[in-house]
Amino acid sequence: MASEPAQSVIESFASKLRYPQLFFVLVILFVLDLFIPDMIPFADEILLGLLAVLVGRIRAPKEPPAERPVKDVTPREGG
Fold first, then answer.
1. pLDDT tens-digit readout, 26-42
2. Chain-centre distance of CA 29, in angstroms?
């Protein structure tokens, strides 16, 4: 069957994505916007908004702040 190689390529690509459902929703909106631009108003704005959210969620995590050394404040005995 001709669709099996295409399906395996799509599945291997989607398995590497962090948000595969969002990616496919964006692709569908983009294709609809290309073929039916007047019937779906604001579809390109929705696409750009979702892409902005996606890019915002994928940024690298911040590094934790360096730990300060613990200061010993116990009083000395016998002094």
1. 778 777 776 776 666 77
2. 17
